[in-house]
């Protein structure tokens, strides 16, 4: 009489399939489509909502406004609101990026600990 061998389970095949699925999902998660060249990241002109009342609005020509009133510069804004942990700014999409960066730096120098840009998606 022959001794009957126990039948082996196909665990190696299952491990190979799981490993291949893991590699596939890792590769799929790291690939991202390129950004469209015509993509506009910030749009405030056609908003249906309003900017938060505590936000500093920056127009395309660099004018600053807070609660509907004109503000001279970042230091004047910080003097008006006092020391703030977080300063929110709502920039116009046509505002040049270097101007926006300079404004953020000026707000930090004037006492803001953190400067946050509010975009169309972030408004309620």
TrEMBL record:
GO terms for cellular component: plasma membrane. It comes from the Bacteria. Pfam families: ExbD. It is a single-pass membrane protein; Single-pass type II membrane protein. The keyword Nucleus does not apply. GO terms for biological process: protein transport. It is found in: Cell membrane. GO terms for molecular function: transmembrane transporter activity. This is Biopolymer transport protein ExbD/TolR. It comes from Roseovarius tolerans.
